[in-house]
Design a protein that fits this description.
- The structure is a single chain.
- The protein has five domains: 159 residues, Rossmann fold, CATH 3.40.50; 86 residues; 236 residues, Serine Threonine Protein Phosphatase 5, Tetratricopeptide repeat, CATH 1.25.40; 136 residues, no CATH class; 58 residues, Orthogonal Bundle (Arc Repressor Mutant, subunit A).
- The longest helix has 21 residues.
- Helix content is 62%, strand content 5%.
- The protein is built from 38 helices and ten strands.
- The strands form three sheets. The protein has a five-stranded parallel sheet with strand order 3-5-6-2-7, sandwiched between helices.
- The protein has 786 residues and is mainly α.
Length: 786
């Protein structure tokens, strides 16, 4: 006969520390326990599964007449002893030598109890077998288990315990807002336990926020980091997290061995993996910012067949090594930085780091090249979305190219392949940096890809008014093209020369260069480069006053892109066609084109084209005297331009309506209200600005009477070929005004006083008979053409 020693309330230990947050998880676990007899809390080691289970147990203990019982399995290594360990908790003994499992079934047969099986991951099969028998034979027993992977028992409800909420490291919250983040609250609480005088201040709040983010919001490493405040400031702790496994070692001596240091915790996870899982873990650590299954299959090509990769990835998800991210149409996987650092460390120890990073680079280079090859097509939005998701991986792959000997040539090709994405997203600064770094390290030899990279870099330099750098790049590209002797390479250089001349407002030269490139590009099957040169011809036509040619070029681009289901260039061509129509007074068609173009820019997240559309919609709102709406749209457009390092003066046909729009807004609202609305627009994210613009289309739809009125509400003067006699200095000032410079900036540029600059501007206005700086800019554009 068995004898029993038991308590009426169970054996839950008293909590030694404050329980922080987890309100949502507490509610979810209790709800699951009310409907499922087995609930398993899963998650990475150190995420707080045990602490959450014990808090739930405290909250529900009164619901179980025969108590809540904790069985700790962390230090048990023999799976055959799991039933014995559970039986020992209840003091079950039997002289008849019946099995511990039989004793447990007899004991729980009619009892209403909750059994907590803590740390089952290394004994999953044995824990699953015991749980299955108890649930089948003891109808009033419920089990709450914690494990790094599910038990796999029928009817099991699984709750994956997430990390604690962390602040954005790039936008740390204010001192007042810090307590909203559970990870920060935990750090501060544990820091005060270690150092009672510890306080959060304006000086250490950013470091605390970044510590919590760097540690993935995981309670164990956060608590270990907080313990270091006895000897280090938060800034010093943050600095030393580059070697987190060495720093985070001061854990509780009474905790299970694997929870006393961060390394012990991760070592335990590694030991629980099979050899294949360990190998996959180390290889997947080369990904940055997550990955998708096809990429994993690509870089693990030497280690497993595609079907095997899926199986091992799924197993690593079950064991909480990998995270499943997002809820989109494609599953994406991620890894906590702590586990990624560990995997990279193991990969380096194996001597296979360079080989794996090369596989990683090769896969993403191929991916970028496939995206570029199909850019002018219906899958463009899909390619852009994927490129956006993979930015961290693309950067890591490029970094490998410029830091690993012998890999730079591949980097040039990769940068050229990514260029369409960078250009679409307005990432001009980043594009220039990568093109420059890869070109600098690669062999300087006659190569069409190298020429293409130089020409792309020259275009970006010109857009950012760095004409000297642009000219140097083109000169070198032209030299290499001459050695290559390929008409398409020559056309590429001619196109780059045309862009450079256009940015310098040398419109006649620009037209000549673009016309040289059109013929060869028309012979290509892929119309990408033809579209680019037609766009250049259209821009030059508009800025030089040849509106008919501008319309023809933009309409051809629209026709080519629409037939192929492309979005980015179609949106930009429609926008520029709208600008041409706006100048001609056809505002009905222009307004429709601006709205349609903005809708397309939203599909591909095109910040450059979107900025132009938002700007043009501000003109329409101002024309209707909707001052606040116009100011908000104008502010949003200006913020986007500043983020890209470009000016509205880049396209001179936009200057006059731009300045007139600002003037009207100030007239309608007054300076203070205009500045406030403008700032509100500048604070909008791109998607928010687009939603705002499209949400109130009435602000852009002019009445028929207004559209047909002989005198438009906005005073815009078209360029005229007449050339008044300006002095050399006045001509310089007019050119600088056309580039969008203020009087103070003109003074600095010409090394004169601001008052003298102001006087020059006034004389230019008087000589030309103009009333605004925008009219000077429009006149300069026409004067350059003639």
């Amino acid at each position: 006969m068995a004898t029993t020693v038991r308590s009426k309330v169970g054996n839950l230990p008293s909590a030694l520390t404050t329980f922080i947050g987890r309100r949502r998880e507490l509610t979810a676990v209790k709800r699951l326990l009310s409907s499922a007899r087995l609930v398993t809390l899963t998650g990475i080691g150190g995420v707080g599964k045990t602490r959450l289970a014990l808090r739930v147990a405290e909250d529900v203990r009164r619901d179980f007449a025969d108590g809540v019982w904790l069985v700790e399995l962390a230090e048990l290594h023999d799976p055959e002893l799991v039933p014995d360990t559970v039986a020992a908790v209840f003091g079950l003994h039997d002289q008849a030598a019946r099995s511990p499992m039989d004793l447990l079934v007899e004991h729980f047969a009619d009892r209403d109890a909750l059994l907590i099986l803590d740390n089952c991951e290394h004994l999953v099969a044995a824990a699953a077998e015991l749980t299955s028998v108890l649930l089948r034979e003891c109808p009033r027993v419920r089990v709450l288990a914690t494990s790094r992977e599910p038990l796999g028992v029928g009817g099991e409800a699984i709750l994956r315990v997430p990390p604690l909420a962390v602040p954005d490291p790039d936008a740390p919250p204010t001192l007042h807002a810090l307590p909203r983040y559970e990870a920060v609250t935990l750090f501060v609480d544990r820091a005060r336990s270690a150092l009672p005088d510890f306080v959060v201040t304006e000086y250490n709040r950013v470091a605390i926020a970044r510590i919590c983010h760097r540690l993935d919001g995981l309670p164990l490493p956060i608590e270990l980091a907080a313990a270091r405040v006895r000897a280090l400031s938060p800034d010093q702790i943050l600095e030393r997290l580059t070697d987190r496994f060495r720093l985070l070692t001061a854990g509780s001596r009474v905790a299970p061995t694997r929870q006393q240091t961060l390394r012990c915790s991760v070592d335990w996870s590694y030991e629980l993996c099979t050899p294949k899982e360990r190998r996959m873990w180390t290889r997947l650590a080369v990904f940055s910012g997550g990955f998708e299954l096809d990429a994993a299959e690509g870089i693990c090509v030497d280690d497993a067949a595609p079907g095997e990769v899926l199986d091992v990835v799924a197993s690593l998800v079950d064991k909480s090594i990998l995270l499943v991210e997002g809820s989109g149409p494609v599953v994406r996987y991620g890894m906590f930085e702590t586990l990624r650092d560990y995997g990279l460390e193991k990969l380096e120890e194996s001597g296979e780091q360079v080989r794996c990073r090369r596989h990683h680079r090769d896969w993403f280079r191929g991916f970028a090249e496939r995206a570029a090859a199909g850019w002018i097509g219906p899958r463009q939005p899909e390619s852009i979305a994927r490129l956006d998701r993979e930015q961290a991986n693309l950067r890591d792959a490029l970094e490998f190219c410029v830091t690993e000997p012998g890999e730079a040539d591949a980097g040039v090709g990769m940068a050229v392949a990514i260029f369409p994405f960078w250009f679409c997203r307005g990432m001009f600064g980043e594009a220039r940096r990568w093109l420059a770094r890869t070109l600098e390290r690669a062999e300087d030899r006659p190569d069409r890809v190298r020429v293409g990279a130089m020409c792309a870099a020259s275009q970006l330099a010109g857009m950012q008014d760095d004409f000297a750098a642009g000219a140097d790049l083109i000169a070198h590209a032209a030299h290499l093209a001459e050695l290559i002797g390929d008409p398409l390479v020559d056309a590429t250089v001619a196109h780059a020369c045309g862009r450079q001349a256009m940015f310098r407002r040398e419109f006649e030269r620009a037209t000549g260069f673009f016309e040289q490139a059109v013929g060869p590009f028309r012979e290509e099957a892929d119309p990408h480069r033809l579209i680019c040169v037609l766009q250049g011809l259209g821009l030059v036509g508009g800025m030089s006053g040849d509106i008919a040619r501008a319309k023809a070029c933009h309409e051809e681009v629209v026709a080519i892109t629409a037939a192929r289901g492309e979005c980015e260039f179609r949106a930009r061509a429609m926008f520029m066609l709208g600008v041409a129509l706006w100048w001609q007074g056809d505002r009905a068609r222009a307004s429709g084109l601006f709205v349609e173009a903005l809708q397309l820019t939203r599909r591909v997240d095109d910040h450059f084209g979107g900025a132009g559309c938002l700007e043009s919609m501000a003109w329409g709102a101002a024309a209707l005297r909707e001052g606040e709406r116009a100011a908000i749209l104008s502010g949003a457009a200006e913020a986007l331009r500043q983020s890209m390092g470009v000016s509205v003066a880049l396209i001179t046909t936009m200057l006059a309506p731009h300045e007139e729009c600002r003037r009207l807004c100030r007239q309608i609202l007054g300076d203070r209200a205009f500045e406030a609305a403008f700032a509100n627009g500048a604070a909008l994210e791109f998607a928010e600005a687009v939603d705002y613009a499209l949400g109130r289309r009435d602000g852009f739809e002019l009445s028929r009477a207004e559209m047909e009125a002989p005198t438009a509400p906005m005073r815009i003067v078209m360029p005229t070929p007449e050339t008044p006699a300006l002095t050399r200095r006045e001509s310089q000032v007019a050119d600088l005004v056309a580039r969008g410079l203020t009087n103070r900036e003109i003074a600095e540029k010409l090394v004169i006083s601001p008052r003298t600059a102001e006087g020059h501007v006034e004389r230019v206005l008087a000589k030309l008979g103009f009333g605004s700086r925008a009219q000077i800019a429009a006149w300069v554009a026409e004067h350059d053409r003639t």
